Amino acid sequence: MSSTAGVAAQTVTPAVSTVVVSGIWKRFGTTDVVRDLSFEVQRGELLGFLGPNGAGKTTTMRKILDIIRPDRGSNSVFGGLPGVEHQQRVGYLPEDRGLYRDVPILDTLTYFGALRGMSTSASRNRARQLLEEVGLGDAMTKKGAELSRGMHQKAQLIATIMNEPDLLIVDEPFQGLDPVNAELLKGVLIAQRDRGAAVVMSTHDMGDAQTLCDRILLINAGQRVLFGTVPEVRQAFSDGAVEVVGRDVPTDPGLLRSVSDVSEHDGSVRFLLRDGATASDLFRELAATSASVERFSVDSPDLGEIFIRAVDGDPRTASVA
Amino acid sequence: MSPRSSFLRLVGIVARRDYVRTVKRRGFIVGTLVLPLGLVALFGLSAVLAPSSSSGLTAGDSQIVIVNDSAIDLAPAAAAPVIQLVVRHAADEALENGSIDEFYVIPATWPGSAEVHRVEESGSFSLDAAQRHEIQDGILAAALRTGLLSGTGISADTLVRINTPASVTTVTVSGSAVSDAAMAASVLLPFGFTLLFVMSIFITSGYLLQSVTEEKENRVVEILLSSVPSLPLMAGKILGLGAAGLTQVAIWIGASVLFIPIIGGQVGGLGDLNLSPMVLLLGFVYFVLGYLAYGAIFTAIGALAPGNREAQQYSGFFGFVAVIPIIFSSVFLTDIDSPLVWALVLVPLTAPASMLMVVTIAPDLPVGMIVSSLLSLTLFVAVATIASARVFRATLLLYGVRPSLRKIVDAMLARDQVARN
């Protein structure tokens, strides 16, 4: 999806986009950290925010949160300028995060909830309930310094969702977590998305991005490189190959008109399609043979590979930038 | 909710939370109770020491034993209760059995010669200079004078006046008596209070510094900034921690008002200290302005410094600036209208301590000086707060990085706006 398409979507259905970023620039010193960046985040969508270290992800998130002001361009949150009136509807989990070392986590969370517009009693009750839900019921009175890293992460994520925000911005939420706790917190994020919150998640884990995100935004050197759904992006980077697993699958390219090349690998056959041919053409041709097909899949690279190619300037990024 | 009410609500939440957290800290409680407990201890000590200190040199303490070998009759002088005339062997015996530590021998050559002997057992017995002066130049000399003059027909009253020709009492122009203790208190107490005052400002500003650096080091600050814009966050901290400092000072003043008159009754003079409502009001105003001035600077330092240690180092310099008036305290005593005093009351960072000394020392409140210093200090507080807020929001998220001087200046002049609110 191009930036033009994003702006057009804003014009047609302005109420749907929780966040609209339009052509923002930010310079620190002599470096343009963010350059002409545009995208939007819809209600009930989980947007994966990807990019190499120093690409400008954190700066962009801080701009959405109004912690940093852009030099040029604009961004809106809930249809208006970012500001204190929206901060009660936002949850933020920064990459550099912590808790008060000498304060019980229940008190810390109560304070954070109050800052997000909750009454003290409601905030305390909600903190207690969420701590119970993530298995920290026995640790409510523990101070920040007494918590393990995993407990810290859980408490911090609770701080982010205390007020049931309509916009959730999380920076590397699963960093350093064991698989059990990571799955637990992924479930929490998905539940927030399903509840209708717009979720922006920065991650370096392409597996998480591929399985959790509805759309991904890849930025490099402050510029948008990729923006679209995961299938769209993978499709764009697909070289047209089809992977087939089965018995008696023909491996002679001369027998199949839609195929230009065939290779075998670990029991599967990989067909490279001719220009103009589609996977459907190949499927029909295979159906006409004696082959017994167990699996037929369009072979597209995973997000990790796409990430590397996109950052290296693969020309195919243009179709989903 | 309007932006204005949101702003005030956030300021209130931050202020209340920082206040409660600070006053519950062990360091705050101990620091707050030090002065009242010290005064209670002083009260107890003065009560214990009161009977001995009120009567000065007692007869028992300064009993002097005299062996008179001269031709002059010292019997009339011996009527004084502190003098005991004995024969030599009795004196030697008393010295040997330890019932006395020393005795005086008036030799046969006296008064032809002024020489008088003091006898002690080993040569190691000592009294402090004041006691020795009291015994030898006071009691012994008076006894010898009385002995010399007793046969000349001078009346007993005249003899007393010869020995005590004048008893000086200090009074004010209105005629009320001024005790020595009160005179000492009038000199020492302004400095004591000024020191306490500067300490209070620094301790309170220190809470601000500690709070900012702690939240930066704990990485809590970015979570806070996503909920609270930088200006209400800073304003809430200044209010909450300022209130904590004022609580501490109020407890100190309350303890002083309660205990100083009581202790003053015990030691004399101290109770004459005048903590007038106007002086207390001015003290409060200068405390608030002083705290805001140093608080603005310390907030910026907390945001700028990479860590708590660096923040302490940077703020230490300002500690020296704040005590400059105390270093020049003698000038305040000798010439309160001197150019140096005027300079110190007009420079914003030295004004709070200087003015506290001025209002406690000056016989009449110097209105011109008070107005000038208040204007200077208020203007500085306004400028420093704006500059500090800009530095605070521009540098608070720079973890472990020391910003360049140019970046700091740019931030203060709003040439590098990086955040709203």
- What spatial order of strands do you see in the largest sheet of chain A? 5-6-7-3-8-9
Spans where pLDDT lies below 50 across 5 or more residues of chain B: 51-60, 417-421
Q: What's the helical proportion of residues of chain B?
A: 55-70%
Distance between the termini of chain A: 6 Å
Largest sheet of chain B: 4 strands, mixed
The share of residues in extended strands of chain A comes to: 25-35%
Chains forming the largest contact:
A-B, 32 and 31 residues
Textual characterization of the structure:
The complex is a heterodimer of chains A (321) and B (421). Chain A is α/β, with parallel strands linked by helices and 321 residues long. In chain A, the strands form three sheets. A six-stranded mixed sheet of chain A has the order 5-6-7-3-8-9, sandwiched between helices. A four-stranded antiparallel sheet of chain A has the order 11-12-10-13, with helices on one face. In chain A, strands 2-1-4 form a three-stranded antiparallel sheet, with helices on both faces. Chain A is elongated, with a radius of gyration of 23 Å. The relative contact order of chain A is 0.13. The N terminus of chain A is likely disordered. Chain B is mainly α. Helices cover 68% and strands 5% of the residues of chain B. A four-stranded mixed sheet of chain B has the order 2-1-3-4, sandwiched between helices. A two-stranded antiparallel ribbon of chain B has the order 5-6. Chain B is elongated, with a radius of gyration of 32 Å. The C terminus of chain B is likely disordered. The chains are: A alpha/beta (321), B mainly alpha (421). Chains A and B meet through strand 5 and helix 3 of A and helix 1 and helix 8 of B.
